[in-house]
From TrEMBL:
InterPro entries: GGT-like_enzyme, GGT_lsub, GGT_ssub_C, Ntn_hydrolases_N
PANTHER family: GAMMA-GLUTAMYLTRANSPEPTIDASE (AFU_ORTHOLOGUE AFUA_4G13580) (PTHR43881:SF1)
Signal peptide: none
One Pfam entry name: G_glu_transpept
Protein name: Gamma-glutamyltransferase family protein
Length: 535
């Protein structure tokens, strides 16, 4: 193995978790317990994923909410299915309208960057097609947590305080409901404080009983429409009513004898696939750990600059997925990697890039599921009386008419949240994911390479200190990253910056199935309040 944990003396030594009948891994232990209980009740991996996702909107509202978007990769009956539940821009929004309001770029917070939330539709769509238990049963634990309250966990409390400070800068009436709902005592809850939300319980119950129709066509849609109109937003009931989740064909590359799968654009999983494809094109992994790290960083940079240049709504892309993943093009990109760090530029293939959970059951089903409000609580907007915190995915749109991801009415923006999945010889190996904004494709590359090239188990792969390419030759490393490796990378031309905030390096979960005996092994993120629970 090339990056043995002995190179990282400060890495965690948490043991990998094994299970036989089923498994749930996610970033918050209460939500993991909800999913495990659903499996014990006779639900399948899809049911467990839905229940866990709904519970996460309550117990980790700092990363996702009822107003989130979602994506899923679902292995059922020996086939991998992809679900895109990312929302579209309101039909009434446009670059011209925003420039008339004085905006030169998309604002980060408030009602303007809000696109149609997709998470409730994802739950209902997954349940209808693949679930065993009724949706009200699956959402009942989340409803109970919201009504009865729960003790806030340590990492969530840190993220809550960051959001409180962030939204305090906005002295506008549309932000007041966020403080009334998420900081009713005048401050963010501390670790160990009890927090509850009757409003979220009421909303989740309406979603459960209506199969999410109340959210997109009923009283909840009316509430979102009214609040948006009152405060100058663009989201309307017609936009919500028109929303549909989309079943999509996952995309893949071959790496280390396995197939690595991601959701196609508008998701940024293409970035991870390009990076892994470039590493595969480079040939055998070197025995030198510095060279190994250098290659992985450079490949990720090259994937990222292509992704940021070309990824947008699939139908609007100027270069196809097939062109960007073509073996000849990946070989051309790989040839750019030499001894020294490069300042990467996008290529041209026509010449020759949050909460995450994984579940598994004893029927062979496995789910890779991710949902997110984008940055923290998202837009900072809570619809009064509903507990719905709206995402700010529209922040990723560009107002530059020449940009691939230019804002258009009804368009889906470049999306950072990406679920991953591994297969081998047409059999499921398992789901994986690393949440954390623009860290996600980089996290995918790091954990996949650690497991498949370095032969680490899922927990060891998640425990390793991470790096994060920022721009040009600048790479941030987290506190536990070994100094001797950082110095060696500096000699290769990388500008290494030590970060003091481990929470910015992503938070992942992994479940793998042994092909011979069906035993599951899982890992959970040491940087979160998570748990991996066997059933």
């Amino acid at each position: 193995m090339n990056l043995d944990p002995h190179y990282y003396p400060t890495a965690s030594r948490r043991m990998v978790t094994f299970g036989k009948r089923g498994m749930v891994a996610t970033s918050q232990s209460l939500a993991a317990q909800v999913g495990a209980d659903i499996l014990r009740q006779g639900g399948n991996a899809i049911d467990a994923a839905i229940a866990t996702a709904a519970a996460l909107t309550v117990v980790e509202p700092t990363s996702n909410g009822i107003g989130s978007d979602a994506f899923a990769l679902v292995w059922v009956n020996d086939k991998l299915h992809g679900l895109n539940a990312s929302g579209r821009a309101p039909m009434g929004i446009s670059g011209e309208a925003l420039r008339a309001l004085g905006h030169e770029e998309m604002p980060a917070h408030g009602l303007i960057p809000v696109t149609v939330p997709g998470a409730p539709a994802a739950w209902a769509t997954l349940s209808e097609r693949f679930g065993k238990l009724p949706l009200p049963t699956l959402l009942a634990p989340a409803i109970a947590l919201a009504e009865e309250g729960f003790a806030v966990s340590p990492v969530v409390s840190q993220l809550w305080q960051k959001a409180y400070t962030r939204y305090k800068q906005y002295d506008r009436p549309e932000f007041a409901p966020w403080f009334e709902h998420f900081a009713p005592e005048g401050h963010a809850p501390k670790a160990g404080d009890i927090w509850r939300s009757p409003d979220m319980a009421k909303t989740l119950r309406a979603i459960a009983q209506s199969g999410a129709k109340a959210f997109y066509q009923g009283e909840l849609a009316d509430a979102m429409d009214a609040f948006s109109r009152e405060h100058g937003g663009f989201l309307r009931k017609e936009d919500l009513a028109a929303f549909r989740s989309e079943w999509v064909d996952p995309i893949n590359v071959r790496y280390q004898g396995h197939d690595i799968w991601e959701i196609p654009p508008n998701g940024s999983g293409l970035i991870a696939l390009q990076a892994l494809g470039i590493l595969e094109a480079l040939g055998d992994e070197p025995h030198d750990p510095v060279e190994t790290l250098h290659r992985r960083i450079e490949a990720t940079k090259l994937g990222y600059v292509d992704g940021l240049r070309y990824i947008t709504e699939h139908s609007d892309m100027t270069h196809s997925v097939e062109q960007l993943l073509a073996p000849r093009y990946l070989e051309q990109r790989a040839a750019l990697i030499g001894e020294q760090a490069i300042d990467p530029l996008h290529g041209n293939p026509l010449l020759g890039g949050t909460v995450y959970l994984a579940t598994a059951d004893d029927e062979g089903n496995m789910v890779s599921f991710i949902q997110s409000n984008f940055e923290g609580f998202g837009s900072g907007i809570v619809v009064p009386g509903t507990g719905i915190s709206l995402q700010n995915r529209g922040w990723s749109f560009s107002l530059d008419e020449q940009h691939a991801n230019v804002l258009r009415p009804g368009k889906r923006t470049y999306h950072t949240i990406i679920p991953g999945f591994i297969t081998k010889d047409n059999r499921a190996v398992g789901p994986f994911g690393v949440m954390g904004g623009y860290m996600q494709p980089q996290g995918h590359v790091q954990v996949v390479a650690s497991m498949l090239a370095d032969k680490l188990n899922p927990q060891a792969a998640l425990d390793l200190p991470r790096w994060k390419w920022v721009a040009g030759k600048t790479v941030e490393v987290e506190p536990g990253f070994p100094d001797h490796l950082a110095q060696a990378l500096e000699r290769r031309g990388h500008h290494i910056v030590r970060s003091t905030d481990a929470l910015t390096f992503g938070r992942g979960q992994i479940i793998l199935r042994n092909a011979e005996n069906g035993v599951l092994q899982g890992g959970t993120e040491p940087r979160a309040d998570g748990a991996v629970l066997p059933v």
